[in-house]
C-alpha cells in the first residue's frame, strides 16, 4: 500500500522514489509486450474488483472539495462515477490492444560501406506527470507510459488525493500480478506542494516532465524545471474562412469548432473571415451562435456587420483562451493577413482553413506554425484518438521531440542501430 502523508523530508522522499523508479525503468525497458499487456489487463481487473473502495475514496475527496468551496465544474471533473470507472477500465484494455512501439526498427538502409543503418524505438525512461483534478488521469497516464516501456512518477492534484491513492493501489497490485516491479508506477503520496518543486529538479532520476493543468502550473514548471518538459500552455485555435470557401462547409466547421465542446484545448477561440464573404456568412453564423448561447466579440468590421449581436473585442481577446461560450471574430483582407494573425496571436496548437483553392490550402499548411494544421475540418479533430493514436498523454505545442497529440510513439525516443558483418572503416 502506498505511503500516506505527512512526509517530513520531501527531498529525501522524492530521491528515494526516483531511485526506485529508475531501477524499475530498466526492468520495463526489457519487458516484452505480453508482460506489459498482462499488467494492463490485471490493473483493469483490479479496478473493476475494487469499485467500492474507489467510490469510497472518491467520496472523501468530493466531501473535502465541497467543504473547501470548489465550484461545480471542478467537482464534476473530480467525481468518479460508475461510467467514468467503466471508461477508465476500458481505456486500460484499449491501450493493451494497441501495437507496442518499443523495439521497432525502421529506416534501415545499406550505406556505400556495406553496413546497414537504421533506428530503433526505445522508452524515454522515467516520465514524471503533474496534473490536476481528474483522477482518471492516474490510470490513463500510467497505462500509456507502461505500454511504452517507461516507469512513471505521478503527482495528482491535492483535491483528488484519496482517489489517486486508491487507483495507485490497484496499479501496484496489477503490476505485481504480472511479475513487473510495483515501483514502475508511483503516485506521490503527499499533497505538499514542495513535492512538485522537488520532482522537477531531479534530472538524474526523471527523464521528462509532462504537466497537465492550468496555465499557471505549466508556466511555473517550464520556468523552474531542470528536467526537460513536454508542454502546452494554451489552445488559442483559429478557423479562417477564405473568400473561396464553400459556404456550407464554412458554416458547419465554424459552428462545430466552437460549440461541440467549450472547455477543450482544441476548441476554436477566434474566427477569421475574409472581407469579401464576411457580409454573406457572418449574419447566419451569428444567429447560430446566439442560439447556442455564445457571446461574440468582434473587430470594428465585424461589429459593423452584426450590430448589437456583437460587442467590441479588446486587444486582449485575440490572445485569450476562453474555454467558455465566448468567440472572438476578426474580418481580414486576405490569406496573408489571416496567416499573420494566427502566427502572431495563436498558441501553435491547431488552426484550420476553409477553402476550395488547393494552392491557398497548401500555403496555409506550409506557413501556419502550429502543431496541427487543417483544411476544411473542425479543430475539434486535434485529438490522439481521432488521429489514430489510440490514446494520448496530452497535446504538445513544443517543437522538439513530440509535437501535437502525444501517444505511445511520443513517449518513446529513438537510437541508431548499425548492422555489419565484420565491417571496418578504412
Layout of SSEs?
Blueprint: H1 10-30, H2 33-49, H3 51-68, H4 72-78, H5 82-97, E1 105-110, E2 116-123, E3 126-131, H6 136-147, E4 151-155, H7 161-177, E5 185-187, H8 194-199, E6 208-212, H9 215-224, E7 237-241, H10 247-259, E8 268-274, H11 275-292, E9 295-298, H12 300-306, E10 311-312, E11 326-332, H13 335-345, E12 350-354, H14 358-367, E13 372-375, E14 394-396, E15 404-406, E16 412-419
Parallel strand pairs: 3-4, 3-6, 4-5, 7-8, 7-12, 8-11, 9-10, 9-11, 12-13
Antiparallel strand pairs: 1-2, 2-16, 14-15
Helix pairs in contact: 2-5, 2-7, 3-7, 5-6, 6-7, 10-11
Separation of termini?
59 Å
Outline the biggest β-sheet: 7 strands, parallel
Broad structural category: alpha/beta
Q: Given the C-alpha coordinates, what overall shape results? A: globular
Order of helices and strands: HHHHHEEEHEHEHEHEHEHEHEEHEHEEEE
Average of the residue pLDDT scores: 94
Strand order of the largest sheet: 10-9-11-8-7-12-13
Task: Give the fraction of residues assigned to helices.
Answer: 40-55%
Radius of gyration: 24 Å
The count of β-strands is 16
Work out the strand percent: 15-25%
Low-confidence stretches: 1-5
Number of helices: 14
Task: Give a quick precis of the structure.
This protein is an alpha/beta fold and 426 residues long. Helices cover 43% and strands 19% of the residues.
Explain how this protein is built.
It is built from 14 helices and 16 strands. It has 426 residues and is of the alpha/beta class. The strands form 4 sheets. Strands 10-9-11-8-7-12-13 form a 7-stranded parallel β-sheet. A hairpin with a 7-residue loop joins strand 14 and strand 15. Helix 2 crosses helix 7 and helix 6 (136-147) packs parallel to helix 7 (161-177). The longest helix is centred in the first third of the chain and has 21 residues, at 10-30. The radius of gyration is 24 Å and the shape is globular. It starts with 9 loop residues before the first helix and ends in a 7-residue tail after the last strand. The model is unreliable at 1-5 (pLDDT under 50).
